[in-house]
Design goal:
Arc Repressor Mutant, subunit A; 2 domains; about 70% helix; about 0% strand; elongated
């Protein structure tokens, strides 16, 4: 399983990664505990031991997905404002591009619109807000931009291609998260964020 971190090669991690892949492909409701443990190569009792229940396992998957994005957005050396924005955009694109199961899981989970979906969205929004704080500290935000809507607008740019992926792929005749498409979309997003598209 490509998603398991080298320092996390445990039964708990195998269960979590198997659940992520199965939840992404089938949805949470359609995924049985048995199918998860069979995929992870562990006994069913380990889900109860590590997570308590399938819902506890789902929460652990949510935490891991947010951690993947959060880790990608942890800045290294201080960057000039424009380079910081480009770096953050590229960091998210790399995670989404390299982990189709993460994209599919986010899409399915957010569209379910239940309590777990609201929790996941709240975590994504908090991550977007913390990224906006990084931009503000770096002097990368326009003073006239709306502080309430900034994090939502960032999420629109990130989640839009994720939700519309099948339709965009059909229109483009290419993979939405393929390297060349991501490169062009990232450049267009950066231009939109820094320059706008309307001449008014």
């Amino acid at each position: 399983m490509d998603g398991i971190r080298p320092q996390d090669l445990t039964g708990r991690a195998r269960i979590r990664e198997a659940a992520l892949e199965l939840f992404a492909s089938r949805g949470v409701a359609a995924t049985s505990v048995r199918s998860i443990t069979d995929s992870a190569g562990v006994s069913p009792g380990l889900i109860r031991h590590h997570f308590g229940s399938k819902e506890g396992l789902r929460q652990a998957v949510d935490v891991e997905v947010i951690a993947l994005l959060g880790d990608a957005l942890q800045t290294g050396p201080t960057l000039p404002p424009r380079e910081l924005v480009r770096w953050a955009n590229d960091a998210v694109a790399r995670v989404m591009g390299s982990r189709p199961e993460v994209r599919n899981y986010l899409r399915r989970s957010l569209l379910e619109a239940g309590e777990s979906s609201r929790y996941l969205f709240a975590r994504l929004l908090a991550l977007a807000q913390s990224t906006m704080e990084q931009f503000e500290n770096a002097g990368a935000l326009r003073l006239e931009s709306d502080p309430l809507w900034r994090p939502y607008q960032v999420l629109f740019l990130i989640l839009g291609p994720l939700f519309l992926e099948p339709f965009i792929a059909e229109e483009l005749g290419d993979e939405v998260f393929g390297e060349s498409v991501v490169e062009r979309r990232s450049a267009a997003n950066l231009a939109l964020l820094t320059q706008g598209i309307l001449k008014i």
